[in-house]
Design a protein that fits this description.
The structure holds three protein chains of three kinds. Chain A is about 70% helix and about 0% strand. Chain A has one domain: ABC transporter involved in vitamin B12 uptake, BtuC (Orthogonal Bundle). Chain B is globular, with a radius of gyration of 19 Å. The chains are: A mainly alpha, B alpha/beta, C mainly alpha.
Chain lengths: ~300, ~260, ~400
């Protein structure tokens, strides 16, 4: 590889990597939002969040399969499957919180975290036992997109879909948080739970809502990645979850724009390392960034410093 | 009088907020000094600065050693400051809840004992002797605060007032020359408060430990203190003997309000 | 009645929730769908029963009564109290236990001896992690990395330099300690949950390095033909060698238990526990928390290093897939089940969690599912673990009239 030649192929290669990074980064950002929302409200690292993403991919796969067998029109399958994944994952997220976290409010800090780790292992093995330990092929359900013809070396239909859907999701989330009643209540609860309670905000409902929104976004990420990669497996949530968490920390955990920025930065960084160095170190890069950020700048790029009360 | 604690122009900023503003204060040997002021005046922040939990933005904190040497505390870690002879209690009680009452006090002995990992594993005579001494000293401190009967209870099983006394015993176990008490009487009934007052006097009279306390119970403050500092919005607005403070118009206006005490 | 309604509702909710993943079975080859209604109905029934139990548990918890009456309940309290207060009986029980453990490889089969070896190795690991998580309250999720370092230390030193087991045992422990320090220094200031994630990342980095650094570590294929430990040059067949390793691990576990119980009750051990309870108060009481945290890391990783060397010697073959996060999670669930900081509890939990899936074949598929569930359920209903309240007895001179009052 000649890094000095700035001609034809190299620019093209760079652009390819750039868009590859954007695609990947948008998925990380979608999942990272769930971590950040939950952390912002209850200060818990929802360790099982990656599993919700994996459940999203699986639910979509299964629903799409069923629809396919019963002869549902091909064009609508992906939409219905994605909707099903979002609805079911929202329910999983809601249930997760009610079962494993809510009873532990006010418990020592480590208790909900250990419970979350347990939930993560449980959900992985639930899918492993209920379905399979193999990689399952995800059908290609995307319609051909002719308008991508001229840029198909940087962007296939699935990349386009990922960018489009994740942008829409992130913009709507931002608008929701900023302008709706519920969104404002969420922000208030994140800033000061006690005060929000005094102002008549139902904290339990806000927490549930946070889990529902976060899980729905993760499910969306799961569907998109499944249709992009073409296969799913019970273990995909672990790594994706960790990377998305890295993204959330990178951007500043608790910060919504931070999660988006962090996701994109991580996606780009991974894409360029893979392209210019070696794919072997792709996963290590994420963990390396995670450790460096937590040790040297735990508040991330967009987070704000906190002082512990004594 | 020889000062033990000397604070010069101490300031603490949190972002744009100035929590302490050029506060100066000194406590003499064997003196009992009170720090009063409305909630949010910065009293606990002051304690945190002095004990090294926060690093002061400006100003100096000095602790005078046993031989009269003057030690600058700024920037030192909390445990170093404690081993130099400063101990404290916490406003919102911070005991080691799952540990026994005796073990809580024994933690205070940590900086006065030496045994390491190897000693722990081998349990040689020296380690055992040191440990037994630590146990006995801790028990005698429990007797001092009248908690000896509960020595084998876990700390979170103690009633509130007893927990506050346990915090004092734990602080005393570090062999301080300067003891900082953060609202020691909070949540105590009048009888407990009275006993606490006797305890503070007893500590001062018998070991010449200097005491600086934050307290809202004015009766207790007036009865105990040799001198009082009054804080408002991070600054010191008055200082003097209880009698002087009682008649200081600025204090009455800012704090005592309707002229109680 | 209300309770039954709630349970029925929960059952319905979970049946809908699990409908896709549990209820649909796709056959991509024949292009057909099998609806697994049997599973869904079974789950519904199960959830109904569980929800009733759940309600009952929370009712007890709310009333301030322990959900699991241990160690007092089930006659155990009586037994434990008897063991505690009568040293003769305690010695007797220990002797019986010692005889059973000593005769195990003679009485049991080769297969059983092997299982016992791995159970004992997990006891060692769990006790080591118990120092860090249980005593010092520092949630380390990448503990298996130190285990891997010990194992690879032996594997590599043997492969490249021809070192034997006994030379590698201390080196493996030492290397793990060095890595423990290396990890400990940068993470000193981190809060509990961040620490967990960083150590998890560390564990994964170690595993990925082992997996990708093919020229040295053999990559995913790992290292094979690692010699079993020698005994003054006596040559042994596999069975004899396994028996020998069994006794070796047994001795190692006994040493571990003695060292850790002494440590737990020492000045250092008290400081560790204080750190777990309240870091700020601990520091304010004059404890050098930097030192205490590093000691905890060093002590914990040391044991994993030793266990790693023994593991490599036992299996004679190591590769990165033995050192995944799931291993760390398994060890953590032993500590959680046994009781944070409790030595007896952790030993019992390690035995239960390793032996139960081995002997109850029906369990083995559900092993990891169970481990996950255990962590959640323990946190909800019994955060202190199976055995708690193992309290040290102090001799107070003033009470016993020796040495007089100080």
């Amino acid at each position: 590889m000649s890094a000095c030649v700035w001609g034809g192929m190299d620019i093209q290669f760079f652009i390819e990597l750039f868009f590859g990074g954007l695609t990947r980064g948008s998925i990380y950002a979608l999942i990272a939002l769930g971590y950040t929302l939950v952390y912002g409200i209850i200060g818990l690292i929802n360790f099982a969040h990656g599993e919700v993403y994996m459940l999203g991919a699986f639910t979509a796969l299964l629903v799409a399969g069923v629809l396919g067998v019963y002869g549902f029109p091909a064009g609508g399958i992906l939409v219905v499957a994605a909707l099903a994944a979002v609805v079911w994952c929202a329910a999983y997220g809601y249930t997760l919180e009610k079962v494993a976290y809510k009873p532990l409010r006010g418990a020592p800090r480590l208790s909900p975290l250990i419970s979350a780790i347990g939930m993560s292992i449980f959900l992985q093995n639930y899918v492993l036992l209920a379905q399979t330990s193999d990689f399952v092929p995800f059908p290609n359900l995307l319609p051909p997109m002719d308008f991508l013809e001229y840029i198909d070396y940087v962007m296939g239909p699935s990349d386009f879909l990922i960018l489009l859907v994740s942008t829409i999701a992130m913009v709507s989330l931002s608008l929701f948080i900023r302008f709706t009643r519920m969104g404002k209540a969420m922000r208030a609860t994140a800033q000061n739970r006690k005060m929000a309670l005094l102002l008549g905000i139902n904290a339990d409902r806000i927490i549930s809502l946070t889990f529902i929104i976060g899980s729905a976004l993760a499910a969306l990420g799961g569907v998109l990645i499944a249709s992009h990669m073409g296969q799913v497996n019970f273990g995909i949530g672990f790594l994706a979850g960790l990377k998305a968490f890295t993204a959330a920390v990178l951007g500043g955990i608790g910060s919504i724009p931070g999660a988006m920025v962090g996701g994109l930065v991580l996606g780009l960084a991974e894409s360029f390392t893979t392209g210019y160095f070696s794919g072997n170190y792709e996963d290590m890069l994420a963990f390396g960034i995670l450790i460096l950020i937590l040790v040297f700048r735990p508040d991330g790029i967009l987070g704000k410093a906190t002082v512990e009360k004594v | 009088m020889n000062p033990v604690l000397e604070v010069v122009d101490l300031s603490q900023n949190f972002g744009g907020l100035r929590a302490l503003n050029e506060l100066s204060l000194s406590v003499g040997k064997g003196e009992i000094v009170a720090l009063i002021g409305p909630n949010g005046a910065g009293k606990t922040t002051f304690f945190n600065c002095v004990t090294g939990i926060y690093t002061p933005t400006e100003g100096q904190v000095f602790l005078h050693g046993a031989k009269g040497e003057k030690l600058l505390l700024n920037g030192r870690k909390p445990h170093v400051i404690t081993s130099l002879g400063m101990a404290r209690t916490f406003q919102n009680i911070r005991l080691f809840n799952e540990m026994t009452v005796l073990e809580n006090v024994m933690i205070g002995r940590n900086c006065r004992t030496r045994a390491g990992i190897l000693g722990a594993i081998l349990r040689d005579a020296k380690t055992r002797a040191e440990e037994q001494e630590s146990i006995d000293v801790s028990y005698s401190l429990l007797e001092l605060v009248k908690l000896q009967d509960f020595w084998n209870e876990t700390a979170n099983n103690l009633p509130y007032g007893a927990q506050r006394r346990l915090e004092i015993a734990r602080a005393l176990a570090t062999e301080p020359r300067m003891l900082l008490l953060d609202e020691p009487a909070a949540g105590m009934n009048p009888q407990e408060t009275n006993e606490l007052k006797d305890l503070v006097f007893y500590i001062r009279d018998n070991s010449q430990i200097s005491i600086l306390l934050i307290e809202h119970d004015m009766g207790m403050v007036m009865a105990l203190s040799d001198r009082i500092y009054v804080m408002e919005y991070g600054s010191c607005i008055a200082t003097g003997t209880p009698a002087e403070i009682r008649s200081n118009p600025r204090v009455i206006k800012a704090y005592l309000g309707e002229g109680d005490a | 009645m209300q309770r039954m309604l709630r349970a029925a509702f929960a059952a319905l909710w979970f049946m809908i929730l699990t409908l896709p993943v549990l209820g649909i079975s796709l056959n991509t080859v024949e292009h057909s769908v099998v609806w697994r209604w049997d599973r869904i109905l079974g789950l519904g029934a199960g959830i109904f029963a569980l929800a009733m139990l759940w309600d009952w548990c929370f009712a007890r918890k709310a009333a301030g009564r322990p959900v699991l009456p241990l160690p007092g309940g089930f006659g155990l309290g009586f037994a434990l109290e008897a063991l505690r207060s009568r040293p003769g009986l305690r010695r007797c029980a220990l002797a019986v236990l010692a005889v059973v453990m000593l005769l195990m490889p003679v009485a049991g089969s080769f297969y059983q001896t092997n299982i016992m070896i791995s159970a004992l190795l997990y006891v060692m690991l769990a006790l080591g992690l118990n120092i860090v998580v249980g005593l010092a309250g520092q949630l380390v999720l990448g503990y298996v990395a130190f285990y891997a370092i010990g194992a690879y230390a032996y594997g590599l030193l043997n492969q490249f330099l021809g070192w034997g087991f006994w030379a590698c045992l201390p080196v493996g422990g030492l290397l793990a300690v060095l890595f423990g320090f290396g990890l400990g220094f940068p993470v000193l200031r981190l809060r509990g949950d961040y620490l967990a994630i960083v150590t998890l990342g560390f564990g994964e980095i170690v595993r990925l390095t082992l997996q990708n650094w093919t020229s040295v570590t053999g990559g995913p294929r790992g290292i094979s033909d690692i010699p079993r430990p020698g005994l003054f040059g006596v040559s042994m067949d596999i069975a004899a060698s396994t028996t020998y390793i069994y006794y070796l691990v047994l001795v190692a576990v006994v040493i571990t238990i003695v060292v850790i119980s002494r440590l737990k009750n020492s000045r250092v051990g008290l400081a560790l526990q204080a750190l777990r309870e309240d870091e700020i108060a601990c520091e304010a009481m004059g404890v050098d928390i930097t030192r205490v945290k590093l000691s905890a890391f060093a002590l914990g990783s040391c044991w994993a290093g030793f266990a790693g060397v023994i593991f490599a010697a036992k299996t004679t073959y190591i590769n990165p897939s033995s050192f995944t996060f799931m291993e760390s999670a398994m060890i953590l669930s032993m500590v959680v089940l046994g009781g944070m900081g409790s030595i007896v509890g952790v030993v019992i939990a390690a035995f239960i969690l390793i032996l139960a899936p081995e002997y109850l074949r029906a369990f083995s598929d559900y092993r990891m599912l169970l481990f996950g569930a255990i962590m959640v359920v323990m946190m909800l209903f019994r955060p202190q673990g199976l055995i708690s309240g193992e309290r040290r007895r102090y001799h107070i001179s003033a009470l016993h009239g020796q040495g007089g009052r100080p």
